[in-house]
Amino acid sequence: MDHLTNDRKIEHIDIINSDEHVDRRRNYFDAIQLKHRALPELDLEKVDPSVFFMGKKLSFPLLISSMTGGAHDVVRRINNNLAIAAQKMAVGLGVGSQRVLFTHPEARSSFEIRPIAPHALLFANLGAVQLNYGFGIDHCRQAVEVVGADALYLHLNPLQEAVQPEGDVNFQGLAKKIGEIARSLDVPVIIKEVGAGISSADAQLLADYGIRYIDVAGSGGTSWSRIENFRRRGKDQDDVGLLFQDWGNPTTLALQSLQPLKKKITIIASGGIRSGLDMAKAVILGASLCGMAKPFLKPAMESADAVMKDIQRLKREFTIAMFL
Fold it and tell me: Where is 213: in which H helix or E strand?
């Protein structure tokens, strides 16, 4: 199992890069039509898209969402390039699942990005289900310490775990344990899905246990069900992962369903966001921050400059949408 946790990172990257249909491209944001202003009464050059989140100023509300990490040169390169770009472009960055830290101590260096991004907004990351498999507050504190993080993502991924050949599927009683971690940790806990969305019922339950930050991470973008389906080949020949590849709550609908809870929680939008215009729509629907992952994977394998080029494009798109 030790090697599975580490090698799975590379398998995921290979599948994402080789299968164009992993990105479902459901384009749910296209259904949201914004009112055009022919007389914006603004100077585009003076439009300021910057925001503050957890006390840090971002150049615009972009989060490079969680992707990877582990004891492989390729994932170290990806995380280093993302961290350099996040620092220079003043955007947020979340690391991939840090569970591998506890089976492969040599993976630590791939998550030690604070020296590279001293002023960036950084999020650590662990699977919430691991709280039912021996993880506790000490693991969470270590994850935060290694990254030098401003907050901890605890991700929820029941569909991915159900399809994954070696998945951990005991999600019973997690809400209470999540609440206990949130009360004990020195930094905020953010709950996120990984591409199937957070429902209003989930959000209310989390709010009842004291969670104040939720990343809806809805369907419409990368399908982890499809990714894990291809990892099943040779182990289990059914295509259950394809059956559920579009399962979930679209990000647009998840955002709208959480509107009644806006006084209790701060919302992050991710899942199928592919442009600065999508970001603007997500903010109008209630998000304070907008996350993207897959669009940055290939650029991050190339260089920090390639990542920054994409960030600059997104910022321009977002600013024009504000102007209009």
Answer: strand 213-215
Kindly state the DSSP code that residue 263 receives in the 8-state scheme.
Answer: T
pTM of the shown model? 0.95
Instruction: Give dist(CA 88, CA 304) in Å, integer.
Output: 10
Look-up of token digits 């003076």: 46
Rounded to 5°, the CA angle 277-197-71 comes to 90
**Which residues, 6 or more positions from 208, have their beta carbon under 8 angstroms from its beta carbon?**
175
Q: Give the residue carrying structure tokens 């002023």.
A: 119
The residues near 184 (Cβ < 8 Å, ≥ 6 apart) are 137
Please tell me the distance from the alpha carbon of residue 62 to that of residue 93, in angstroms, as a whole number: 9
pLDDT (tens digit per residue) in 153-190:
999 999 999 999 889 999 999 999 999 999 999 999 99
Q: Is the dihedral of CA 2, 142, 132, 64 positive or negative?
A: negative
CA nearest to 279, candidates 266, 288, 290: 290
